[in-house]
Amino acid sequence: MAQTNDSKASPYELYYNPFSICSLMVLYTLRVKGEPKSAADAVDPEERFIDIYTGEQMTESYLEKHPKGTVPALLAPSLGVKLIDSTDITKYLCDRYPSLVPAAHKQTIESLLEELHEISYVTISFKPEDRRTEGVMEAVREIMAQPDTSPRYREMLQVKLDGHQKRLQTFQDKNQSVASVEADSRRYLEKISQLLCSKHGGGQEHQEQTWIFGDEVGPTALDAHTVVFIARLLDAERAHLIPEDVLRYGKPKLESDAWLGITKGNPTLHTLWEKHQGQQKK
Ligand SMILES: N[C@@H](CCC(=O)N[C@@H](CS)C(=O)NCC(=O)O)C(=O)O
């Protein structure tokens, strides 16, 4: 299933899913990216929907494009671009759109983005009974077990399986738990709160209007990723992890045209979306 935006023929393709936090981070970065360094630096990808809830990410044709079989992915075959991680895609955009990483805040932005992406989103997004990672791994194994799966396709599926296994192992090695991931989230958002506070001296009145480094700086890559993280925590019923000033900062962005243009007003979590759909049918 493919959905395209109205950009002119672009050499770039962005594979995404609107219920994927990392896809949303890239999509929102694209919406607030500002002006490119030059016309040749412009990145306005054709956006292609991948249904990661029916297994489209583990089809042979998608794995040919993207060996990990995840979203997002930014590809531009004619430019030799193949970026298969949201942080790499964001760096690529930052190199081309200077307002995403203003020099004065570069170090802060880079180190906080790194910290944000260390957080296990799966742990705070899904309940153990959702069996999100296990479900994906089982589906991959099922395809591998089918007699008509070619040796080449089986090999590609094994790479995807190994990637998931490695992630699970890292989680166990780090001794992570829901409580520790919640603590990581709080620690991260506390730093955002401090930045907001240093900009506005703790006053409440302007925070709804502004960006982390202030209106004169405008949206940076840190804003783009943090706003999406806030949206996900809200959808995952984890509002208690968000400091009040950070919530006041985030909420208006989640009502903006840029955000609603991406989500169409849907939640960021597929499980929540399904629940809403079910309720509407009753
Ligand atoms: N580190 C990657 C994570 C990508 C990732 O795990 N994407 C998830 C959605 S948020 C996905 O594609 N899940 C489907 C699957 O693993 O099969 C990034 O930042 O892009």
UniProtKB/TrEMBL annotation:
Residues 10-101 form the GST N-terminal domain. PROSITE patterns: GST_NTER (PS50404). It holds the Pfam family GST_N_3. This is GST N-terminal domain-containing protein. It comes from Cladophialophora psammophila CBS 110553. The lineage of its organism: Eukaryota, Fungi, Dikarya, Ascomycota, Pezizomycotina.
